[in-house]
């Protein structure tokens, strides 16, 4: 929110010019001391100015210098002291009231701050009225954002970009994100127009001023789920290096929330921006708390267990009633596989803080389910009295009990919820819905009599409900058929039932078209005529079964002919050829026959493969033997003929 700080009325000395020689002559001169304090404030020396005031308390009383003292304390971030100084002043001047409003805003006492600014606007007329309206709109925006209070229409004309920006912040607090985005776009236009009129303002100065507006735009994108666009805009703002440490801290925190447990290295760099000096004085308590929570979560994601425990313990000591520190500690224990200790921690917190017991017990139940203890999880859920009758809780418990096959407990859950609605909200539609669901569940699990009582209760509530009556008749038909017949008389007749059926559309549907096509194949002679015309139906002749060509009536057929060949009693398997057995067996390069048989050197009777020089016997012995290279393999001519025949048959087309 845009909130302006004022130091415009510090020229309280009029035309008096401060001179150190005056104080040398008279150390306790009130006017001189007052002028010295104002000069120090104008120079930004707030500590020195406050020191002068505190050392001359006898002379500079609260009536004389209350505003200057309170302003120094305010600028030194001693907000509580500033409030005491303002309240102790005997006379509440306009400038003290102005400062009082700013102090209340910093203390986040928005109701009192709103009343103070309304009083100021009503009772003052000067050139600072626009600033007061800006501060008033900032208070309303803070109420909407942090306290979730519905903002009232102040009737302020949004003529400046600060007013537009504050209005957008109020809309974000209400969840009206699209309207807020339009307001921010308008604020951006007004900001550019107002700053471009000044010739001394550069484009960089304009972008620096627009950084806070762009930051809020990125936040809206993040809330809308457009995380990529939001992240891009956040990084653009960081590249500008704005001087506002509060803005940088908020943007860095939002980037960390987008990263979650991913891109941890970037998150560790961004978290340094949240530790900048003076951040604690620029942000609200809830913003600072959110940053600390995210630091603890980041420590958990980066496996810094000690740091995570330290941060969460610090957060718990600051706000003992807050739920998140305990949940972070429990999550860290679960990461360390200490589930029992995590459940114990949550149970202790639930006992100490009954207001948060429901949320804590839901977490405990989730941990029990993760451990596989579904029954214990059901017991924890049923102990949450304020949620026992809720449809979501009933559905969860029934599902879990059904998973454990504990049908009695599931029916008991239905019964308790129905009794609660019967007592407190008997006419609620949820009541009837629960009764119907209970009846369906009981029918599904064979509890017909119990289901009948529920259905009868439903029918009494609405006797015209045909669906319930049909269910009741169906249930009675399984238990008491006579009762089902009696109830069936209450069903409406087919004549009274108005079925709004478009016959043409039904006939033109896909299924009807298929049936009509089949019916269209029938000729007029084959169609049935109306009874009473005396036509006799033609009997279809049965065709004789075809017999096989080699059928011999003298030979009895094989009784196992209908069985597959492998399943017949006389099947002995196929005969395998010897050559097939010898192919492809053994390691690569090996042969099926023994190596000793092929080794000619080991056989004594084997003739030499080549004739020895000068040996006639060798010539005569080998004269009739054809050399191996000239031998033709057996069956070669036959295979050649077959290949030629195949080529002739298939040689129709070219290459």
From TrEMBL:
GO terms for molecular function: 7S RNA binding; ribosome binding. Residues 584-618 have a biased composition (Low complexity). InterPro entries: Signal_recog_part_SRP72_RNA-bd (IPR013699), SRP72 (IPR026270), SRP72_TPR-like (IPR031545), TPR-like_helical_dom_sf (IPR011990), TPR_rpt (IPR019734). Residues 549-570 have a biased composition (Basic and acidic residues). Residues 516-655 are annotated as: Disordered. Belongs to the SRP72 family. Component of the signal recognition particle (SRP) complex, a ribonucleoprotein complex that mediates the cotranslational targeting of secretory and membrane proteins to the endoplasmic reticulum (ER). The SRP complex interacts with the signal sequence in nascent secretory and membrane proteins and directs them to the membrane of the ER. The SRP complex targets the ribosome-nascent chain complex to the SRP receptor (SR), which is anchored in the ER, where SR compaction and GTPase rearrangement drive cotranslational protein translocation into the ER. This is Signal recognition particle subunit SRP72. It comes from Athene cunicularia. The lineage of its organism: Eukaryota, Metazoa, Chordata, Craniata, Vertebrata.
């Amino acid at each position: 929110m845009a909130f302006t700080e004022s130091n415009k009325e510090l020229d309280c000395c009029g035309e008096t010019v401060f001179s150190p020689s005056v104080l040398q002559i008279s150390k306790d001169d009130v006017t001189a001391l007052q002028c010295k304090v104002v000069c120090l404030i104008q120079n930004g020396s707030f500590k020195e100015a406050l020191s002068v005031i505190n050392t001359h308390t006898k002379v500079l009383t609260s009536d004389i210098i209350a505003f200057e003292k309170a302003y120094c304390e305010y600028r030194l971030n001693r907000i509580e002291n500033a409030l005491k100084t303002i309240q102790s002043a005997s006379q509440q001047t306009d400038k003290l009231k102005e400062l009082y409003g700013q102090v209340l805003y910093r203390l986040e006492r928005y109701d009192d701050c709103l009343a103070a600014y309304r009083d100021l606007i009503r009772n003052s007329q000067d050139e600072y009225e626009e600033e007061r309206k800006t501060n008033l709109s900032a208070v309303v925006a803070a109420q909407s954002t942090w306290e979730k209070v519905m903002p009232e229409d102040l009737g302020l004309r949004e003529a400046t970009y600060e007013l537009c920006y504050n209005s957008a912040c109020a809309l974000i607090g209400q969840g009206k994100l699209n309207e807020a985005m339009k307001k921010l776009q308008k604020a951006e236009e007004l900001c550019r127009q107002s700053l471009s009129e000044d010739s001394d303002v550069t484009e960089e100065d304009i972008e620096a001023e627009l950084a806070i507006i762009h930051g809020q735009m990125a936040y809206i994108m993040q809330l809308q789920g457009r995380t990529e666009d939001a992240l891009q805009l956040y990084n653009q703002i960081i590249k500008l290096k704005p001087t506002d440490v509060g803005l940088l801290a908020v943007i860095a925190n939002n980037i960390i929330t987008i990263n979650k447990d991913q891109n941890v290295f970037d998150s560790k760099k961004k978290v340094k921006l949240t530790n900048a000096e003076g951040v604690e004085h620029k942000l609200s308590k809830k913003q600072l708390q959110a940053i600390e929570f995210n630091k603890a979560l980041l420590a958990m994601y980066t496996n810094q267990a000690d740091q995570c425990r330290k941060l969460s313990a610090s957060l718990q000591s600051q706000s003992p009633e807050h739920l998140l520190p305990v949940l972070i500690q429990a999550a860290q224990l679960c990461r360390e596989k200490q589930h029992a200790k995590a459940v114990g921690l949550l149970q202790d917190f639930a006992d100490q803080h009954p207001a948060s017991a429901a949320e804590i017990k839901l977490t405990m139940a989730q941990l029990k389910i993760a451990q596989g203890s579904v029954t214990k999880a059901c017991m924890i859920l049923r102990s949450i009295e304020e949620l026992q009758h809720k449809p979501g809780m009933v559905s969860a418990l029934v599902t879990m009990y059904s998973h454990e096959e504990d049908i009695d407990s599931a029916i008991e859950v239905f019964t308790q919820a129905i009794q609660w609605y019967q007592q407190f909200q008997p006419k609620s539609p949820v009541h009837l819905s629960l009764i119907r669901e209970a009846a369906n569940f009981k029918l599904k699990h064979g509890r017909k009599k119990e289901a009948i009582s529920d259905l009868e209760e439903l029918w009494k509530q609405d006797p015209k409900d045909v669906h319930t009556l049909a269910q009741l008749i169906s249930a009675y038909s399984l238990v008491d058929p006579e009762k089902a017949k009696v109830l069936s008389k209450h069903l409406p007749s087919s004549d009274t039932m108005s079925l709004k059926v478009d016959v043409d559309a039904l006939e033109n549907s896909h299924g009807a078209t298929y049936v009509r096509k089949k019916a269209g194949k029938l000729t007029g002679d084959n169609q049935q005529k109306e009874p009473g015309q005396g036509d006799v139906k033609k009997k279809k002749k049965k065709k004789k079964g075809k017999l096989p060509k080699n059928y011999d009536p003298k030979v009895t057929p094989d009784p196992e002919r209908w069985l597959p060949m492998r399943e017949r009693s006389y099947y002995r398997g196929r005969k395998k050829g010897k050559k097939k057995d010898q192919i492809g067996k053994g390691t690569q390069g090996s042969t099926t026959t023994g190596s000793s048989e092929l080794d000619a050197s080991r056989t004594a009777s084997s003739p030499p493969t080549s004739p020895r020089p000068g040996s006639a016997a060798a010539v005569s012995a080998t004269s009739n033997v054809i050399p191996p290279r000239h031998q033709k393999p057996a069956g070669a001519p036959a295979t050649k003929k077959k290949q030629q025949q195949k080529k002739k048959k298939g040689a129709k087309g070219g290459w």
